[in-house]
């Protein structure tokens, strides 16, 4: 789902994945306690946080559009 949205919003946002086992410092910095966790940043600041599975791609798409607006 994330890869699909990355392609859909290409040029408007950057999608990055982080392996928290190999890179624990950023996970600690942003308080990631459960996986999956999706953090949407704007101007290098976290503005939306989604923890757990997201049932519909439309929900994630709406949240991304809200941040891009």
Descriptive report:
With 69 residues, the protein is of the alpha+beta class. The protein has a single domain, classed as Glutaredoxin, CATH 3.40.30. 36% of the residues lie in helices and 19% in strands. It is built from three helices and two strands; from the N terminus they run H-H-E-E-H. Strands 1-2 form a two-stranded antiparallel sheet. The model has no long low-confidence stretch (mean pLDDT 93).
Strand-helix topology:
Blueprint: H1 2-8, H2 24-29, E1 37-42, E2 45-51, H3 57-68
Antiparallel strand pairs: 1-2
Relevant CATH superfamily: Glutaredoxin
Overall helicity: 25-40%
Task: Give the second-level CATH assignment, the architecture.
Answer: 3-Layer(aba) Sandwich
Strand % is: 15-25%
The number of helical runs is 3
Number of strands: 2
Distance between the termini: 21 Å
- CATH third-level topology: Glutaredoxin
Largest sheet: 2 strands, antiparallel
Tally of structural domains? 1
* Radius of gyration, taken over Cα atoms and rounded to an integer in Å: 12 Å
- Across the major sheet, the strand order is 1-2
CATH class: Alpha Beta
Stretches where pLDDT is under 50 for at least 5 consecutive residues are none
Which structural category fits the helices and strands? alpha+beta
Q: What would the average pLDDT be, to the nearest integer?
A: 93
